[in-house]
Specification:
It contains 23 helices and ten strands. By secondary structure, it is an alpha/beta fold. The chain is globular.
Amino acid sequence: MTKTAEKFVEISSQKSFDIPHRGIINTNIGRYNTAVERGLSRLVNMEHAKRKGHQIKWKVMENLDKLLPEFESNFQKKGGKVLWANTIDEANKEILNILKRVNAKTVIKSKSMVTEEIHLNEFLESNGIESLESDLGEYIVQLLGQKPYHIVTPAMHLSKEDIAKLFHDKFGTPPDATPQQLTLKARELLRDKYLTADVGITGANFLIADTGSIAITENEGNARLTTTFPKIHIAIVGIEKMIPSIADLDLFWPMLSTHGTGQNLTVYNTILSGPRQENETDGPEEMYVILLDNGRTELLAQKEQRQGLYCIRCGACLNACPVYKNIGGHTYDTTYSGPIGSLITPHLKGMKEFKHLSYASSLCGKCTEVCPVKIDIHKMLLLNRRDAVKANLNTKSESIGWFLWKKGMLKRGLMDAFGGKFKNTILKNFFSKYWGEKRQLPKVADQSFSAKWKKENQSIK
């Protein structure tokens, strides 16, 4: 077992029995579930919409080599510049080159999981550049020195009392400040930053091939401010975020917002097609889109598991997952947590180091059920497990155990040759550690059903 896996098991064991933590998570997810259920009830034909979304994303992945150049060409026609990054290091290097060219000292950011993926804040700070999150949830976890807890709600693990204490310690606000007061304080602190920042950095929810545009979805307006005031705007986006046409937003925007927060549509939905044009009054003087691979083509090459790239990052599978609701987002120690993170991370960051995430699932199928683009997540997790075994990434003891189990299961005589007492001894001595100290080992009957049947029905021919 790798150190990453050992750490995951250790923290999972702790978090599972952290009652206050579980209380906060289940309360916050419960509120989301109520809102989402109400939102989904307003959609007339949900199954049709899901199938259509799945079909569009399938078409994208089958034609990504054509759609990416189409996007690049159309975006450049509007004066934008497209940069390609195969790795985290390349992405950070491209961003730093831009910042150095304009002698930038301060960056304002809107919420972006891709910038978390490349560890952009830490990289910029190591190069003497201030990077400030403008999304309220991201700003809160940045103040705490933490990573986002959830791909949609970064501070989901914190109660309003936790946040009030943080603001009291940092900014002297009342220790019993209300959420409204805390929001106003954050707004007061951040507003000037938009005006003084040298560069604005965002992600994007979608890349639109036929118009050469990026689409950004948000509820706070901070992304619009980030892309409006600074003279330079950099958007860093995973190559899988492509959709063929601007008309597809008619499907994806409502599906994203409804499954993510239960809204018909998020408050701010923005389409950006390049830097400020001559007839426009606001916007950046320069706009860059960095297209990030970072293992995505490796996942694309997996014919069976490439469905993981269909994800639109709504967070629905995290909210539905019984494992996530017990161990929380930070336990995964990855940018993308929950079921979808368990599916894609072994391909993005290495199967050997992260195969354990594909085993961190009850395989109940709830994640697949709620996915707005019908990714067969729990099946993909099984395929990851299969690939890990084929690559001989399991331990020697595990291989021996499964070999013996298979031999026994395929031959009734071997199953009956050893009694229940022997089998229980084997379980106790060799499997109790892996079964977990909080779980009671099952007890094998002294006699198998087959042997018992033969004994009690000797006269039956």
